[in-house]
Amino acid sequence: MLRFIFRRLLSLIPVLFVVSVVIFSLIHLTPGDPARRILGEKASDQAVAALHASMGLDAPVVVQYFKWVGGVFTGNLGNSYFLNKTVVEAIGDNAVPTIQLAIIAILVAVLLAVPFGTLAARYRDGVLDRSVNAFTLIGMTVPSFVLALAMMLIFGLSLRWLPISGYINPFENFADGLRTLLMPGIALGAITAALIARTTRASVLDVLGADYIDAARSRGVTEKRLLFAHTLKNASLPVLTIVGLSLGSLVTGAAVTETIFNIPGLGQLLINAISRRDYPVIQGVILFITLIYLLTNLIIDLLYGIVDPRVRVGKA
To answer: Which residues, other chains included, contact 178 with Cβ-Cβ below 8 Å and sequence gap of 6+?
Structure first.
């Protein structure tokens, strides 16, 4: 297992290298000039050239890239052109709300999807199964921002149960902070729950059709124990994969929801940086999100070994 972890950590390096090249190339190929955004479109060419030199944008692109990569290895992602702070500080300030929102969303998704997906498979073709299938169909077709707007109208404006915008850190004020994150978290989590529920149902159905389940049933094992002690555990690997991928996608996909609810997260930071052509912030945020994806996948692989020892032996 230790060798497997070491190999996986080493495998992150070439992936991050490729991602960094792609990020850097796309940003510098995209039309737009941060110096023009700072000085205005009527600024003289001499003033723009001087600002380019002070920002390091007058050097060849290859030189700029290796200078940036060298800084990455030392923890220096550069300075924002507009925020008067380093990129690391900007990411640190905005990552907390996004991670909190993603955690709430994935908890909502798992608590909804896994029980209902399991019961839908157990009572296949019943009323519950049809209801879960209808929910997953709606959830996989309706964008999260539509649900977010509907919840704002119902629970925010009509019932006035929850605030419709703003953010309070739960670590500073738990009750009020949770109220600011609850509605956007449910809006994101309900959509994610649709995919997890469908995967759970399919995986549980596959296990329920296995020969060893029939053998256990013939030995008199109760249906409750059969479902939760035998079936759900063996059906959990595909579910873990979807949960891990969903957690990573929630971090990146929260941008629209954060904008709707005015939450100062990574999504808002990235959107603002793109609109202003704040190259260091764009590069840093995308690299950070990629790292979250890769680490999430690594954690899921480790959980495989805990859930199913056969997987651990195969990877050792």
So the answer is: 170
**Beta-carbon contacts of residue 241 (< 8 Å; ≥ 6 apart):** 300
* Residues in CB range of 233: below 8 A, 6 or more apart: 307
Per-residue model confidence as pLDDT tens digits over 140-189: 888 778 888 888 999 988 888 889 888 898 988 899 999 999 999 988 88
Quote the CA–CA distance of 220 and 210 in Å, as a whole number: 16
At residue 88 the predicted structure's pLDDT band, cuts being 50, 70 and 90, is: very high
CA of 241: how far to CAs of 18, 41, 188, 253, 277, in Å? 24, 48, 18, 18, 35
- CA angle at residue 137 from 129 to 255, to 5 degrees? 130
Distance CA 292, CA 272 (A): 21
Confidence of residue 305 (pLDDT cuts 50, 70, 90): low
